Amino acid sequence: MKNKLVILLVALSVASVTVAQAQQHIKTNNDIGLYGGFTQFDITTDNFITTSGQGWIGGLAASVALPHKWYNVSYTIQIAQNSMGIMAKPNLTSAQEEVDFNMITAQVAFLVHLKVIQEYLTIDVGPMIQYTGDLEVENERQGSYIIENYTRVTAKDIYKISPFNINGAVGVSAGFPSFKLRGQYIYGFTNILNQLNDEKFAGETNTSKFKGNQSMFALTAMIIF
């Protein structure tokens, strides 16, 4: 996974330089930003009963400022560790309880920053490609718990999240040329649970298709060089 991230970062850098060279007859400013912060993550689905959880996020942004335009553009690469809860029970006759799950995501995005107050306040929007790690049970003791709404599907059975997803991101950035705060909402357009449909759960009575879309909110602070 680390090698994949390095390749993506190099690709972003090359793309940024290419844009700058293509517009060399126009004055532009290229910046690099480092940022980190917190996430609120959930999966919107009818299959599971979920609760959102908190995590962390960090990344790198390569920005191209276009003084002659009403927008700027940037390429970002970020890694996040997300958490969420899914209701399950030790056995079919037990009361349900929350099982905590963790998931690592790596995201690459192309963002357009619409200038509301020059570079001090912008609305950010753009597409995002995401690599998603397994959905891991935080407490191994709960791995055999039966997921609510099912009779045979356990917590450890639902680890196979679809590895590649396409998201949309929208947010707001505010601050100064060297420091910004950013709030961003990320929604998954693709079915993040789709790979579970390839699994066979012998004896399971619930045969409905697995379908879910990720929902993430990120609040970050960025230092710009």
Automatic annotation (TrEMBL):
Signal peptide stretch: 1-22
Keyword tags: Signal
Protein name, as recorded: PorT family protein
